[in-house]
Design a protein that fits this description.
The two termini are 34 Å apart. Helices cover 26% and strands 25% of the residues. Helix 5 links the parallel strand 2 and strand 3. It is elongated, with a radius of gyration of 19 Å. By secondary structure, the chain is α+β, with helices and mostly antiparallel strands. The chain has a five-stranded mixed beta sheet. The protein has a four-stranded antiparallel beta sheet with strand order 6-7-9-8.
Amino acid sequence: EIFLPLICGASVVIASSKTKKNSERLIEVVHSYDITFIQGLVTLFDRLTVKGWTGKANLTIVIDSDAISTSFYDVIATCSRVFHVYSCPETTLCCATYLFPKHNPTDTVASTTLGIPVGKPIAHTTFYLLDEKLQEVSDGESGELYIAGYGMCLGYHQNKLQTALKFVPNPTTVGEQGLGKGVGIAQVPLD
């Protein structure tokens, strides 16, 4: 998060704890330093939108959340790009990304009855939507999200019970690492 921008020639501005807690001051920092990239939880952006902040045209946002407030739609429409990154405790910090469409972000979110789209899995990661018998669900059906790939941990350190609750053998590929349960229920898109 810090070294990649520096390697690419960018500057990194790290707000103090005091600034992070003061929404007005944080908005000033974003504009005075001409910040072009912010990564944060939805709570950060909710605090800013409550103060009337609507983003800025040259800003890319990466947000990690299961749901967003309707006031955040204005930020999506204003900013250059807004990504949702999906993660769960059993995988890397980001195992999927979703780029909100620029044209009308409310169309996509409103048509998704289960919240923000998870997006596409990152490289070497596979998503499975499975029913209670660990069988893949059909188009348009709901199921539990299971994740496989290099980013999955092997289990919980010295906690066999938690590992058994969160990981199952991969029923689709013999010899591949087990599947980790994602968070919540997902649905296969009809398209």
